[in-house]
Design goal:
Elements: E1 7-15, H1 21-34, E2 38-44, E3 47-54, H2 56-68, E4 75-81, E5 89-93, E6 112-114, H3 116-124, E7 128-132, H4 136-141, E8 142-144, H5 158-169, E9 173-177, H6 182-193, E10 199-202, H7 205-212, E11 220-222, E12 224-225, E13 232-233, E14 243-244, E15 251-252, H8 277-291
Parallel strand pairs: 2-5, 6-10, 7-9, 9-10
Antiparallel strand pairs: 1-3, 1-4, 2-3, 8-11, 12-13, 14-15
Catalytic activity: uridine(34) in tRNA + AH2 + O2 = 5-hydroxyuridine(34) in tRNA + A + H2O
EC number: 1.14.-.-
InterPro entries: Rhodanese-like_dom, Rhodanese-like_dom_sf, TrhO, TRHO_N
């Protein structure tokens, strides 16, 4: 019996004017259904962002369609999954393709791109402050050694964090990174708007770094959280070993799953004290139904 082909996972984004996001949404939904895609795309007046999975044919059809719609400069990364990492296909229209909450102009003014092959030199430079722009639960799974984490729970919180640390960062070279690069398009644009002059960011994000830089040369510790059923990926974008707590969304490694407060589908050490007995009972029932194949 032949081994089934892996599911192709494409993470992509591009900032460009979209005159009619609702019409683009409709066309994308039709294409996704026709090619049995799964995942989520976000469409906004400023562009498109998302992660989609499907067959080789389906992903190629999506790219061809987007190219025809003017998305000819997609930041686009591919990996593979043994099984479909999403349950269904969704296209959402939002005000922003990644929500920062304050006006910036990433198409006009962004930080200097740094290729993955050049990133280690920045990490070694004592005059560079490296900032991880991701959320706390993402940093939990893995991060670059020595990077500063703002400790945020949402990208919307980043501007406030910057306001509180602007004086300490003044006059410094600032290098930033995120999962696939899109958040840094906005965070570096924000720093430039606030008067910073030497701002850099990792081109293609962590995913491109893990794909391009040999593991022996890597400065990455842990795994990279991804927003799909794989939970995390490692070097070479192979599936990682973490599982997600279905109560709070935190990625859990093998050690986390040995904690006395971990109960599959119900709780982990990060959330066990924040949910009621009734909520835990509901989570147990959900887990039971999931195990029975009813969800």
């Amino acid at each position: 019996m032949s081994t089934p082909a892996p599911c192709i996972v494409a993470a992509l984004y591009q900032f460009r004017d979209v005159a009619d996001p609702a019409a683009l949404r409709g066309a994308l939904l039709d294409l996704g259904r026709a090619h049995d895609l799964c995942g989520t795309l976000i469409v906004a007046p400023e562009g498109l962002n998302g992660t989609v999975a499907g067959t080789r044919e389906g992903i190629d059809a999506l790219r061809a369609f987007l190219h025809g719609e003017g998305f000819t400069a997609l930041e686009d990364k591919e990996s593979a999954a043994a099984v479909r990492p999403f349950r269904r296909f969704k296209v959402r229209v939002k005000a922003e393709i990644v929500t920062l909450g304050v006006p910036v102009a990433p198409r006009e003014r962004v930080g200097t791109y740094v290729r993955p092959a050049e990133w280690n030199a920045l990490l070694d430079d004592p005059d560079v402050v490296v900032i991880d722009t991701r959320n706390r639960y993402e940093v939990q799974a893995g991060t670059f050694r020595g990077a500063v984490s703002p400790g945020i729970d949402s990208f919307r919180e980043f501007p406030e964090w910057l306001d509180g640390h602007a004086a300490a960062l003044a006059g410094k070279r600032v290098a930033m990174y995120c999962t696939g690069g899109i958040r840094c398009e906005k965070s570096t644009s924000l720093l430039l708007e606030r008067g910073f002059t030497d701002v850099l960011h990792l081109q293609g994000g962590i995913l491109r770094y893990l794909e391009d830089v040999p593991e022996a040369d890597s400065r990455w510790d842990g795994e990279c959280f991804v927003f799909d059923g794989r939970v995390t990926v490692g070097h070479g974008l192979t599936q990682g070993g973490a599982v997600m707590c279905h109560s709070c969304g935190w990625p859990l490694d093998a050690g986390d799953r040995q904690h006395p407060q971990y109960e599959e589908g119900v709780s982990c050490a990060h959330c066990a004290g924040h949910t009621t007995s009734a909520q835990k009972a509901a989570f147990r029932e959900r887990q039971r139904q999931f195990g029975a194949g009813r969800l």
